[in-house]
């Protein structure tokens, strides 16, 4: 379900090492614009023009460290004001993770990321159906693994279970393609979308 509802997204990652105090903004801006163009060309194949949202990130660390942390970049060309903003954002993120920054230490950027994605679709909410007891179509002798014996169980036709229908296990819910076994410790109900939801009984 998550795969089917996930927004269209594409990520471009490039390595480009540079110390923050030696950063060439022209080089970085050119790199980011190339990455943005590449991502847009891919996302445009599956979305309407202008519907995607761009995000940019850089992975940074104090010089000589072995691990980087991510810092969010503005989705535009960087200018001279961003030099100090990058330092401040990195040190704030570092302090949030490690409780302190290292004043005056050299900072380096290693990996640049551009992501383009469509807005996440809103989740449709449905009203909670009124509960009602389901009616069994018949009873059938079925082997009960919990009791290790045959026993009579109610059989419910899936197509007759309207949203809000409830039943108690042990029971069978049958349909042309499959049969759902509701064991003794569980109750089953049909939610607003028609899905079977099984819930363990209190005390079981």
Choose one word for the global shape. elongated
Q: Supply Rg.
A: 29 Å
- Describe the biggest sheet? 4 strands, antiparallel
> What is the structural class?
alpha+beta
Give the rounded overall mean pLDDT: 91
Note the beta-strand portion: 35-45%
Number of helices: 3
Amino-to-carboxy terminus distance = 30 Å
Number of domains: 2
User: Helix-strand pattern, N to C?
Assistant: HEHEEHEEEEEEEEE
CATH topology call of the largest domain: Dna Ligase, domain 1
Roughly how much helix do the residues carry, as a percent range? Answer: 10-25%
Under CATH at level 1, the class of the largest domain stands as: Alpha Beta
Low-confidence regions? none
Second CATH tier, the architecture of the largest domain: 2-Layer Sandwich
**Sheet with most strands: strand arrangement:** 1-4-2-3
Kindly report the oligomeric state of this protein: single chain
Q: Work out the number of β strands.
A: 12
């Amino acid at each position: 379900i998550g795969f089917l509802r996930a927004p269209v997204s594409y990520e471009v990652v490039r390595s480009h090492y540079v110390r923050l105090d030696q950063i060439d903004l022209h080089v970085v801006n050119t790199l980011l614009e190339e990455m943005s163009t590449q991502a847009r060309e891919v996302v445009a194949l599956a979305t309407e023009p202008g519907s995607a949202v761009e995000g940019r990130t850089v992975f940074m660390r104090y010089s000589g460290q072995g691990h980087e942390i991510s810092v969010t970049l503005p989705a535009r060309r960087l200018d001279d004001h961003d030099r100090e903003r990058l330092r401040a954002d990195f040190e704030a993120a570092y302090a949030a993770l490690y409780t302190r920054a290292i004043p005056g230490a050299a900072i380096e950027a290693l990996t640049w990321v551009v992501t383009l994605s469509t807005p996440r679709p809103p989740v449709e909410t449905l009203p909670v159906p009124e509960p009602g007891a389901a009616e069994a179509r018949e009873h059938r002798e079925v082997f009960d693994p919990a009791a290790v014996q045959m026993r009579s169980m109610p059989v419910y036709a899936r197509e007759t279970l309207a949203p809000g229908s409830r039943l108690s296990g042990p029971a069978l819910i049958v349909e042309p393609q499959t049969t759902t076994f509701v064991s003794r410790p569980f109750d089953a109900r049909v939610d607003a979308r028609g899905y079977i939801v099984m819930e363990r009984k209190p005390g079981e």
